[in-house]
């Protein structure tokens, strides 16, 4: 089959793809405080019913990962990765439809996970099934890594599998939501921490003459810490072109976010302190989330924070919070990036290119293990993690076409004769 015939193969089977999306959306898999057992069972049955053996790896009693392989053990190895968990639904009264409706209406698939990322996951599963069902020639192997834990930091998902050498490859595609023409090939680092400030309690009627308020000291600390946004780094030379292209994309899509790729961002997420209005607070706990650009290390951010706090003469401690990572990227010239971007252009007949991302995801784990990776998936970006989450059916089908073509190119060396 040539690429035109492969595209037709997806189109001729797209009813199966949409039905698969609907089924996944109808199965609750909220995380945290959820259980992904039902969706794991469904995915396993779908694969086994189509001749693909699913392997189960229980990272946690309620979180079971699926690994499945097709193709050859020799030759290039490609990983297609997706997560089956979603963020919680939240207040159902703010949804205009049942969050587990899973229906296709008005050209959209509706429900929690429609954009993040059950329809992208369905596209990966569907692609593997087409490769198996039609015995498409592969000079390498495709691994499906379906993880049950991503939305809460992913401890029991991708890093759990990688650490145990249960998955490996020469390239990886994660079906995380992205712009239809611009997969994400690099991400800023994460540097989150908890600042605990200690004060001296006293009767509130004596403040500020007696005692020392941890809350007041915490407020002073916040003002100092927020100056971290002025830190500047040196962009690696090999990233200059990608950064310029990413800024161009950002200017067109979100002009108010100009400069986000070059700056340290600082969000004061939570503040908890004191025991009552009539007591000078003896403790204030502040959670802070910084995202670190290319050219700056996490250690530099924390050194700056320490130097700023040292100026205040306050009693404090700093502890790590959440996951930590340095800024990371895959070069646009890498074969897995070329396979995806080239085929986005084939399917869409429009110019496509990879861009940087201001947040972070499971991609960082693959890069830590030396596996080039990018993210590309269907999405209505404005609805991710929000109420009335949805995605265009057309976008889901287009992504599935790219997944199939990219797998064929990457595993067969992009040789036309490998399609015959």
UniProtKB/TrEMBL annotation:
<feature type="domain" description="Peptidase M20 dimerisation">
    <location>
        <begin position="185"/>
        <end position="315"/>
    </location>
</feature>
<keyword id="KW-0862">Zinc</keyword>
<dbReference type="InterPro" id="IPR010182">
    <property type="entry name" value="ArgE/DapE"/>
</dbReference>
<protein>
    <submittedName>
        <fullName>ArgE/DapE family deacylase</fullName>
    </submittedName>
</protein>
<dbReference type="InterPro" id="IPR036264">
    <property type="entry name" value="Bact_exopeptidase_dim_dom"/>
</dbReference>
<dbReference type="InterPro" id="IPR002933">
    <property type="entry name" value="Peptidase_M20"/>
</dbReference>
<dbReference type="InterPro" id="IPR011650">
    <property type="entry name" value="Peptidase_M20_dimer"/>
</dbReference>
<keyword id="KW-0479">Metal-binding</keyword>
<keyword id="KW-0170">Cobalt</keyword>
<dbReference type="GO" id="GO:0016787">
    <property type="term" value="F:hydrolase activity"/>
</dbReference>
<dbReference type="Pfam" id="PF01546">
    <property type="entry name" value="Peptidase_M20"/>
</dbReference>
<dbReference type="Pfam" id="PF07687">
    <property type="entry name" value="M20_dimer"/>
</dbReference>
<comment type="similarity">
    <text>Belongs to the peptidase M20A family.</text>
</comment>
<keyword id="KW-0378">Hydrolase</keyword>
<dbReference type="InterPro" id="IPR050072">
    <property type="entry name" value="Peptidase_M20A"/>
</dbReference>
<dbReference type="GO" id="GO:0046872">
    <property type="term" value="F:metal ion binding"/>
</dbReference>
